[in-house]
Design goal:
By secondary structure, the chain is α/β, with parallel strands linked by helices. It has twelve helices and 14 strands. It has two domains: about 210 residues, 3-Layer(aba) Sandwich (Isopropylmalate Dehydrogenase); about 140 residues, 3-Layer(aba) Sandwich (Isopropylmalate Dehydrogenase), CATH 3.40.718.10. It is globular and about 60 Å long. The structure holds nicotinamide-adenine-dinucleotide (NAD).
């Protein structure tokens, strides 16, 4: 088997963390006997500098023609003054839309060696292992009508519209149910069905699918979004897979992310079409770029997600994740997760240590 991967490092620390991610990918391919063909493209601010726009056609074509996309991060102060239509982050939205990536998967797993990095008590967070499945291409961020209009009395009126159709709900709910079947078989569907008709429909569709589409083996619960925000802090271990709308997912996934204490640890996958896209949750961290201080583990764990979801290489993914756990258990830390008495390492050394542990487990 030979996989084509579009590698889009982006800006800031993107190229640094990507360097470690791709080395892990090449190493694991060798161990498990499959081929990887990596082709690099420039996106975001780097692309604006070179071509005047954040995503050029040839890079989009590269992404569309690949089996998977590995992305760093885009943006930075240098491009902050630009019009929204050509800002680096537009490349991200364009890629999601063009690749049909309607499902965003964000696992939130607390490595027990890092439990004290969380702002919550160890006994609350230790053992947290949940997955947020967020709808990514619909809902209030895209619904019409939207905009700000001037009223006759000189005041203004702003509108956004939350819209979901039955097929949009069904396809994201399938992703949630399927993920739950591969994990601990519990799905929490998060809505605001007591107030919003659109999520009353959401709840109705998810309930019907549970009954009629072969998901009886999954324990389904419905939770109102405000309660969910509380439950995440009160008892995060109650969650296995959570499926929700674009906006609720945007907010809850950031809240859930903070349970782990560091953004440098969190991977993500965006799925839906033929090509999956994998990226760390963090941004370009301009404050530490070029200093070998970035934590590459979110990118390395994104590579593990690619192995699992795009290449069906579950054993290879487990091996990468285990290697990360061992490195942390042995006390190695990048600056963002540093604690007294631990061994401080840079981005490159952290990557090398993970590769060493991957090799050791052979
Ligand atoms: N997906 C993306 O491409 C994406 C996501 C978020 C932000 N951004 C962009 O990134 C730029 C900076 O945004 P921000 O500062 O709000 O968020 P950020 O995630 O880049 O940084 C927030 C803080 O976390 C630290 N941090 C982030 N990733 C880290 C890592 N891997 N290792 C160690 N420390 C890390 C940074 O040093 C900083 O102190 C902005 O231009 C923003 O638009 C891009």
């Amino acid at each position: 088997m030979n996989y084509k991967i579009a590698v889009l490092p982006g800006d800031g620390i993107g190229p640094e963390v990507m360097g470690e991610g791709t080395q892990v990918l090449k190493q694991i391919a060798k161990i498990y006997g499959f081929g990887v063909e990596l082709e690099e493209g420039i996106v975001g601010g780097a692309s604006i500098d070179a071509h005047g726009k954040p995503l050029i056609d040839s890079v989009l074509k590269l992404a569309k023609g690949s089996d998977a996309v590995l992305l760093g991060a885009m943006g930075g102060p240098k491009w902050d003054g630009l019009d929204y239509s050509i800002r680096p982050e537009r490349a991200l939205l364009a890629l999601r839309l063009e690749l049909g990536l309607f499902a965003n998967l964000r696992p939130v797993k607390l490595f027990s060696a890092l439990a004290s990095a969380s702002t919550l008590k160890r006994e609350v967070v230790e053992g947290t292992d949940l997955l947020v499945v967020r709808e990514l291409t619909g809902g209030i961020y895209f619904g019409q009508p939207k905009g700000v209009t001037m009223l006759p009395d000189g005041t203004e009126r702003g509108v956004n519209t939350e819209v979901y159709t039955t097929p949009e709900i069904e396809r994201i709910a399938h992703v949630g149910f399927q993920a739950a079947l591969r994990r601990r078989k519990k799905l929490t569907s998060v809505d605001k069905a007591n107030v919003l008709e659109v999520t009353e429909l959401w709840r109705k569709v998810v309930t019907r699918m549970h009954k009629d589409e072969g998901y009886a083996g999954v324990q389904l619960e419905h939770m109102l979004v405000d309660n969910c925000a509380m439950q995440l802090i009160r008892n995060p271990k109650q969650f296995d897979v959570m499926v929700t709308t674009n906006m609720f997912g945007d907010i809850l996934s950031d809240e859930a992310a903070m349970l782990t204490g560091s953004i440098g640890m969190l991977p993500s996958a965006s799925l839906g079409g033929k090509v999956g896209m994998y990226e760390p949750v963090h941004g370009t961290a301009p404050d530490i770029m070029g200093q070998d201080k970035a934590n590459p583990l979110a990118t390395i764990l994104s590579v593990a997600m690619m192995l699992r979801h795009s290449f069906d290489q579950g054993a290879a993914a487990d091996r990468v994740e285990k290697a990360v756990e061992v490195v942390l258990d042995e006390g190695y830390r990048t600056a963002d997760i540093q604690e007294p008495g631990r061994k401080l390492v840079g981005c490159k050394e952290m990557g090398r240590l993970v590769r060493e542990k991957i090799e050791d487990r052979g």
